[in-house]
Amino acid sequence: MRQRDIMLSALTAITALMALLAVTTDVRAGIYKLVDEEGRVTYTNTPARGAQKLQFGAPEASGSRAAVKAVVATPPTSMGNFPKVNAIQQKRRDDQRRQILENELAEETKRLLEMQQALDDAKRSLQVQTNSTKAGSLSDDERIVQLRKQVASHERNVMALRIELERL
Predict the structure, then answer these.
(1) What is the pTM of this model?
(2) Which of 79, 93, 117, 119 could be 147's S-S partner, Cβ–Cβ 3.0 to 4.6 Å?
(3) Integer Cα distance of 167 and 22 in angstroms
(4) Which CA distances in Å does 160 have to 26, 28, 150, 164?
(5) Which pLDDT score, from 0 to 100, does residue 99 have?
(6) What is the C-alpha separation between 64 and 146, in angstroms, rounded?
(7) Which tens digit of pLDDT belongs to each residue from 99-152?
(8) pLDDT tens digits for 60-78?
(9) 118, 145, 130: which is closest to 6 by C-alpha?
C-alpha cells in the first residue's frame, strides 16, 4: 500500500509538471508545490493545505482584468474568445518557467544527494552492527527501506524536472 502511495505521488508530480507546459496562456490557473512531512515534493494544479503557489507570470499580469487584457496581442480567433499572448510576454514566461524549473532541479538534486549519503551511512552502520552482533535489528532494515524509497522518489523528481527543462 505504501509503495502505491509513492507511485501515485510520483505520477501526480509528473502530471503536474506536464500540465505546467500546457498552461501558457492563463498563468493565474495556478501550480502548487506541496512538501509532505517526509520531504517528498508533489506538484499539483489544485490548492491544498500547506501547498505553496508557484508564480510564473509577470506580477503586473496577475491582478486586474485590465492587466490581463494588456498581454493579449491578437483579436479572438475562430476558436472563440481564447486570448493570445504576444511573443515578448511568452518569452518572459518561458524564461521564468525555465528559472523556476532550474531552481527546483538544483534543490531536488541536493536532496537526492543528501538522501543517497544518508542511505550509504545507514548501510555502513548496519553492516558494522551486523558484523559485531551477527544480526541487524528490524528497525535498521526498515530505515534503509525508507531511505531507498526516498532516494527513488528524489530520482523520479530529478528525472521529471530534467524532462521538462529539455522540452523548453
Answers:
(1) 0.47
(2) 119
(3) 11
(4) 23, 23, 15, 6
(5) 94
(6) 47
(7) 999 999 999 999 999 999 999 998 888 877 766 665 545 466 888 899 999 999
(8) 444 445 544 444 444 444 5
(9) 145
Which tops the pLDDT comparison, 154 or 18?
Answer: 154
Phi, psi angle pair for 53, to nearest 5°: -80, 125
Query: What are the distances in angstroms from CA 75 to CA 66, 81, 144?
Result: 15, 8, 58
How far, in whole angstroms, is CA 40 from its chain's centroid? 9
Q: H-helix or E-strand containing 110?
A: helix 87-133
> CA-based angle 33:27:16, to the nearest 5?
35
Q: How far apart are CA 101 and CA 160, in angstroms?
A: 10
Burial class (CB in 10 A: 0-12, 13-18, 19+), 157: buried
* d(C-alpha 115, C-alpha 7), whole Å: 18
CA distance 11 to 6: 9
